[in-house]
Write a structure and sequence with these properties.
heterodimer; A: 257 residues; alpha/beta; Rossmann fold; 6-stranded mixed β-sheet; 9 helices; 9 strands; 35% helix; globular; B: MetI-like fold; 13 helices; 87% helix; flat; binds adenosine-5'-triphosphate; binds magnesium ion
Amino acid sequence: MKELLKFSNVKLTYQTLTDEIDALNNISFSINDCEFVAIVGPSGCGKTTILSLVAGLLSPTSGEIILDGKSPKEQSNLIGYMFQKDHLFEWRNIWQNVILGLELKKEHKNIDKLNKIDALLEKYGLKDFKKNKPSQLSGGMRQRVALIRTLATNPKLLLLDEPFSALDFQTRLTVCDDVHNIIKTEKKTALLVTHDISEAISLADKIIILSKRPSTVKKIKVLHLQDYGSPLKRRDAKEFRLLFDEIWRDIQYDESE
Amino acid sequence: MKANKNSISDSLDNEKEVLNKKKLCCLSKKKNLKQKDFSKAHTLYLKQISKEKRIIKISQIVILIILLGLWELTTQIGLLDAFYFSSPSRICVELGALFSSGEIFLHMWVTLYETLIGFAIATILGVFIAIILWWSERTRKILEPYIVVLNSLPKIALGPILIIWVGSGTSSIIAMCVLICIVITIISMLNSFLQCDNDKILLMKSMGATKTQILLKLILPYSIPDFISVLKITIGMSWIGSIMGEYLTSSEGLGYLIVYGGQIFELDLVMTSILLLCVLACGMYYIVAKLEARFRR
Ligand SMILES: Nc1ncnc2c1ncn2[C@@H]1O[C@H](COP(=O)(O)OP(=O)(O)OP(=O)(O)O)[C@@H](O)[C@H]1O
Ligand SMILES: [Mg+2]
């Protein structure tokens, strides 16, 4: 398998008027093609910061980040960023929302690409809502639209920053399944940030556990639950409980230190 | 994996159904309104609401009639001197005279014209400046104290300077109008621009958007509702600007008629002009409110 993203000894320090905040301290990990990786860690440890670095919105203070052979700033075409809220633009209808990325790249007249988006909408049950405004959709559907908007520019790597935390528990489980399914069938690589340990276990192939700020990689846990199928089914796996306890203790132990 | 896919499409179908039901509900509500086959309780509820509305409308009209009636009565029996207070009947006579001579159209047009031009210039220039201030944080910080000072200064104080700088008459009236409206336009629009969710901007950036694209595709459409609210405020203020301007320097316009009428103790003329001003200002506000309803849909 090909390596898509590599962090080597990445440090990041935020400068503020009153303080220097060491957010990341010597972070190293790598992600392969088509892998689904989750990052967990205590609140404020720098998870979002890692995603911003991959997206090229920040530059590391020291260390090196390689995204498909180049630095992230030159690779903005490769990534798609999905936030906690769906951030659909209320003044645009669903179709106009999903083609936003193409519009920004001036590719919204490219019939091939438009057809591809059309197919995605159809495949994931949103075809009938193209002309609707976002406010007419349910939370789960909005999140799916946001995912398709992210997929529209055909990124290799998806960055997901707690994309389900704004949803209620029931919807969250189904949308989780949907998103996982979409990402796997479209053969995307995903880097997911979450607070929810069970969500991480049920979705990921690999979990990166961060320590408290200034954070380092505490442990990288490779999971083997793929055979159980969808995230919802993985929650029933017999190892699930044990994994949960292990990871929970890893995070907790750090906090009591 | 396959079963999993099925369950997804099931849940999709479920959601679709719910939404369809929602749509149907809306539709049937609309139909019901026409057919009026509601349950008893609902009919009663609707009746109460329309009754309440009627009471409010009638009370408003009654108050107007009482006020006008009292005004007319007290001036007729000499409790108030009609010379100082005018009266509804005298206003009617005055209106007739003004309109039949046709001169009033000129005055109305002049004031309307000054107001609209001032309003338009202030809006366009104000939004433009707000965009510049949004674009460059440094410019914004540099100019901040100046904007604060301009905002707190009573603009009318600059009247004499305006007359000297841009000349008396229409141009300084329009300038006064612009001066009064532009600061509030700049401040409100800039606030609206800056309020846009930072994550939305990051989202655009992560998709490779340039700053111009962020402005055109996110910031401007995002602040349209605020823009219309600002219009509703500045349209009122632009009337203040043009009338104040006319008080200072003018030879025509409704503001001029009011000042002139006051000077020659012609209270009928003053009252009539104020009435016409009210009609024009309300008309313009109404247009903006319509525009707002259209955009909010
Ligand atoms: N722009 C910034 N300037 C200064 N400090 C910042 C900035 N952004 C984040 N930080 C600090 O860096 C640390 C890491 O922030 P980050 O948002 O990456 O954490 P997180 O793990 O995503 O937190 P959460 O779990 O709450 O989302 C925090 O302590 C935060 O206070
Ligand atoms: Mg975060």
